[in-house]
Amino acid sequence: MGSPPRPHSAPGAARCRARDLGIVIGSCDTGPLNTITDVPGVRIGHTTVRRPPEVHTGVTAVVPDLVGPRTPLPAGVFTGNGYGKLIGTTQLTELGELETPVLLTSTLSAFRAADALVGWVLGRPGCEEVRSLNPVVGECNDGFLSDIRARPVHEEHVRAALDTASGGPVAEGCVGAGTGTVALGFKAGVGTASRVPAVGDRRFTVGVLVQANFGGTLRVLGRTFAPPHPGAAPEGPGPDADVGSCMIVVATDAPVDSRQLTRVARRAVFALARTGAAYSHGSGDYAVAFGTRPDAGHPVADADLGPLFEAVLDGVEEAVLNSLLAASTTTGFGGRTVPALSAEALVAALAGPVQGLGGR
Question: How confident is the model over 73-119, as pLDDT tens digits?
Fold first, then answer.
């Protein structure tokens, strides 16, 4: 039935974040923790499933406190490239409502995760009479470093992520759904960030969380930075540049409706271009954005949404970089190895001439 649930993963804890290196993206203030949990009422849970060297995977749960089939939250979704399995998309698009927490996991485990999420929600107080439910589960293909065909994520792992979800600091890097992911030639994983923009005459919080697993060449502050060796064991190739994905979840306490949240989700996917994403044929690039207010009341005027859009663009860019900096070099399925991004090398390269950044 897979390895026992583990709520967090140590490898992400010893590494740094972008701001620890003096890398500041945008001018907007961050929330206190610079994580998606800065949005009031949003909790994150991880379960890491690791059986070295063959299995490096897991599940991450984004849990809004107020969400439920009787109290749906306004939400929007945007597909940058649809080579993916985002379960629940059609109803989310049609109704603009989120009925469940959002789960992220491995491609071939997404369907088991959706079933486990349905069971978990149906067992919640107040759901005794629920007859229809739209679980939302996103995925990335972690098959380069993990035995994806084993489908090692099971119900107990999903329930552990949901039940241990908490506010406060968020583990990043090789944890939960990011345990086996690779992005931009480096070991990647889960990353998060937040911003507190002024929207109209008020300030609100917007938080993002990414599951980074896509191709391209890393771009930091406008400069490119390629890995010195393209990943993998000496006898094998690196990750296929045409295969990958990125799942982005955006949360905000701003009073915005589902149409506006779809516009927010669109900007979240656009932000990947800043990081050097290739948007290849085989990449599933999606964003789900939700508001934490079941009744948004009078939405923010569209003309005032600019700062919120900019906050999402900056937040996603920083979250991707955090996912790389928090990750650790990993040897996985078939002896393949993907290197971590060296913080020291990145800082040195950013301080040097442009032509020294990976030779691109």
Answer: 999 999 999 999 999 999 999 999 999 999 999 999 999 999 999 99
Nearest to 63 by CA among 162, 197, 157: 162
Q: Which among 96, 45, 42, 61 has a CA at the least distance from the CA of 292?
A: 42
Q: How far apart are CA 86 and CA 83, in angstroms?
A: 9
Radius of gyration of the chain (CA): 19
Q: Are 153 and 59 in contact (CB under 8 A)?
A: yes
Instruction: Considering the candidates 106, 194, 245, 280, report the single residue annotated as catalytic.
Output: 245
Which band of pLDDT confidence, cut at 50, 70 and 90, is reported for residue 353?
A: low
Residues 26 and 321: their CA atoms lie apart, in Å, by 14
CA distance 272 to 193: 14
328: annotated active-site residue: no
State the pairing for strand pair 102-106/136-140. Answer: parallel
Which is the catalytic residue, given 194, 285, 314, 323?
285
Concerning whether 201 is annotated as a catalytic residue, the answer is: no
DSSP one-letter code for 355: G
Which tokens sit at 297? 């009341």
Q: What is the pLDDT of residues 199-220, one digit of tens each?
A: 988 999 999 999 999 999 999 9
Rounded to an integer, what distance in angstroms lies between the CA atom of residue 208 and that of residue 224?
Answer: 23
Q: Decide if 285 is catalytic.
A: yes
Percent with pLDDT over 70 in the chain:
89
Is the backbone peptide bond immediately before 53 cis, with ω within 30 degrees of 0?
yes
What six digits make up the tokens of 41?
């009422």
pTM above 0.90, yes or no: yes
Neighbouring C-alpha atoms within 13 Å toward the C-beta of 275: 31
Catalytic residue among 258, 280, 283, 323: 283
